[in-house]
Specification:
By secondary structure, the protein is α+β, with helices and mostly antiparallel strands. It folds into three domains: 3-75, Uridine Diphospho-n-acetylenolpyruvylglucosamine Reductase, domain 2 (2-Layer Sandwich); 80-207, Uridine Diphospho-n-acetylenolpyruvylglucosamine Reductase, domain 3 (2-Layer Sandwich); 214-314, Uridine Diphospho-n-acetylenolpyruvylglucosamine Reductase, domain 1 (Alpha-Beta Complex), CATH 3.90.78.10. 25% of the residues lie in helices and 26% in strands. The strands form seven sheets. Strands 6-7-13-11-12 form a five-stranded antiparallel sheet. Strands 1-2-5-3 form a four-stranded mixed sheet, with helices on one face. Helix 2 (96-105) packs antiparallel against helix 4. It is globular. It starts with a strand and ends with a strand. Bound molecules: flavin-adenine dinucleotide. Flavin-adenine dinucleotide binds at residues 13, 53-61, 75, 92, 117-120, 122-124, 126-127, 129-131, 170, 179-180, 210, 212, 216-218, 313.
Length: 315
């Protein structure tokens, strides 16, 4: 049901931000179509319509303190179906942790790297989420999406999704009006105990290394492909290279060397535990986060001639 002025603070992991002027939740495709038609009917023409934003788990977005002058659709399309034993059809609103639980219960291997990855399947596909040398694209057969303007469905093969480092076609103009509805994952039968052990290992590793005790949105910046590090700093930084899944200079390491740990603006602090996490320790605002982001970008550019690129989405 279409609602007005809905607070987004408790619908994102950062616990930051104002309200959405329009909002509805969807549990099936009928909810999506009827909600959108209701919303469209409020405006005379397409050009009068405010923008539309798709909200998954809200684990990778910074919501502005002033809120969002548009429609937020909260995706709760949550289901997992076995297609032919090792293939799974997964609704885009499914929590990644639910998918991993299903994999353990059904002894399906391939997604162990994602242990502890928060958010929805749709959000993970859009950004080709990855960790521990794995990426979403490694086990994906195809992705279905719907165009929110004309309700046309599109099915893309893995190759057609144009996956890259934390990116996909869904971040480009080609698919800017598309809502990812479901995807087919291709997995392999494996040992239940081993799958469960590997997933738990990643969860434990995250708990030990990441500041999960505070509201956060994961890594603020993408790691830096080592090829983009200026030659004069390559020798100094080569000891820190990590495979992600290609050689990168971790931003957390760079911030640590630059002395950013503990830097605070308002209620937001650059984490001591993992400095690519800017944690909300005390009622932080989007302004606080943006100030810290600008500080980090400028300092790193001035000192090392490296341009940082955000991984997060600004709403
Ligand atoms: C503690 C923590 C750890 C994290 N660790 C990692 C990590 O290891 N690796 C990693 O890659 N990321 C990581 N992240 C970031 C984040 O969890 C992932 O990017 C996640 O996949 C985002 O999913 P979401 O549902 O929360 O997306 P949201 O934050 O809700 O949305 C992110 C973007 O995706 C779009 N979107 C969401 N659903 C759809 C859909 N169905 N169709 C089209 N567009 C959609 C949104 O419009 C928005 O632009 C971490 C975040 C946190 C908080």
């Amino acid at each position: 049901m279409l609602q007005k002025n809905v607070p987004l603070k408790n619908l994102n992991n950062y616990k930051i931000g104002g309200s959405a002027s329009y909002f509805f939740e969807i549990k099936n495709m009928e909810d999506l179509k009827s909600g959108l038609l209701g919303f469209y009917s409020l405006f005379h023409s397409e050009k009068d319509r405010p923008p539309v934003f798709i909200l998954g788990g809200g684990t990778n977005i910074l919501v502005d303190d002033k809120g969002f002058q548009g429609l937020v659709i909260r995706n709760l399309l949550s289901y997992i179906e076995s297609a032919n034993g090792e293939d799974l059809i997964v609704g885009s609103g499914t929590d990644f942790s639910e998918l991993l639980k299903f994999c353990i219960e059904n002894s399906l291997s391939g997604l162990e790297w994602a242990g502890g990855l928060p958010g929805s399947v749709g959000g993970a596909i859009r950004g080709n989420a990855g960790a521990y040398k794995g990426e979403i694209k490694d086990n994906l057969k195809s992705v279905t999406s719907i165009n929110l303007k004309n309700f046309d469905y599109k099915n893309r093969s893995n190759i057609e999704c144009n996956f890259g480092y934390r990116t996909s076609v869904f971040k480009t103009d080609e698919a800017k009006n598309e809502f990812i509805t479901e995807a087919i994952f291709s997995l392999k039968k494996g040992s239940k105990e081993e799958i469960s052990r590997l997933i738990q290992e990643k969860i434990d590793h995250r708990k030990a290394r990441h500041p999960l005790e505070y509201p956060n949105i994961g890594s603020i910046f993408k790691n830096i492909p080592f090829g983009l590090v200026p030659d004069k700093f390559k020798d100094e930084f080569k000891q820190y290279i990590k495979e992600d899944p290609f050689p990168v200079l971790p931003v957390a390491k760079l911030f640590s060397i630059a002395g950013f740990k503990g830097k605070r603006v308002g209620g937001v602090v650059i984490s001591e535990k993992h400095p690519n996490y800017f944690v909300n320790v005390d009622n932080g605002s989007s302004e606080d986060v943006r100030n810290l982001v600008e500080f980090a970008k400028k300092e790193i550019k001035d000192r090392y001639d490296i341009s940082l690129e955000e991984e997060i989405y600004y709403l």
